[in-house]
Amino acid sequence: MTKQIRPEEAVKMIKNGSTVMIGGFLGAAVPLLMIDQLAESDIKEITLITIGAGYRGGGVDIGKLILNRQIKKIICSHVGTDPNLISQIVNNEIEMDLSPMGTFVERVRAGGAGLGAVVTPVGLGTEVEKMAEKITIDGNDFLLHKPIRAEIAIVKAYRADSLGNLQYSGIYSSNPVMATAADLVIAEVDELVEIGDILPEQVGTPGIYVDYIVPGHSSKKRQEIYEALWIATNKL
């Protein structure tokens, strides 16, 4: 059975210099409690793998890690909503590996599936060329990107049972694919349920991928957090 642990126990599995995937995008389907625990720790030099920057400015979700200067490298597809992240990248304080969003997700999927590369024409003639290898196949140019894997993935799901089966609800972004592409997977969930409460057709990530379950905020609490956030940021 998958082990249920507290957030403060889970964060101890992350060390200085760890490569960490964090699911979600722009505040949606983000493991808020685990990010808070990581932000409160003294862990530094993290290579962060995530689709994009925090929601509409610094200090929100993964933006907390940026403000704390805990990140040495970010592998992502979007940075435009966090001025602090942009500043640290421009000042060479954070190294960036940037891929178009579809390419990024495919790189993670390739890492989980054990594939050797992602080959795509997307990004030809742009800055993305500098972050990939240009190859020619049958007379056509493509960009070759290496797969992405992490030591630890922190994903967000709606529900989990004691076997670690995860159920998602609504848009859950990169979480399902990230759960396949790390050596150790920690799932933060809104609810813990009994075996059988999640029907087979509702399983978004089978428990075989999940090592630890962390009880996160309830769905109601998450709604309150995001309502307060959206009200605050819309006043800016």
TrEMBL record:
Naturally occurring in which organism (per UniProt): Acetobacterium bakii
Keyword Amino-acid biosynthesis found: no
Transmembrane segments: 20-39
NCBIfam families found in the cross-reference section: pcaI_scoA_fam (TIGR02429)
Gene Ontology molecular function: CoA-transferase activity
Signal peptide annotation: none
Domain of life assignment: Bacteria
Keywords in alphabetical order: Membrane, Transferase, Transmembrane, Transmembrane helix
Keyword Membrane: yes
Gene3D superfamilies assigned: Glutaconate Coenzyme A-transferase
Protein name: Branched-chain amino acid dehydrogenase
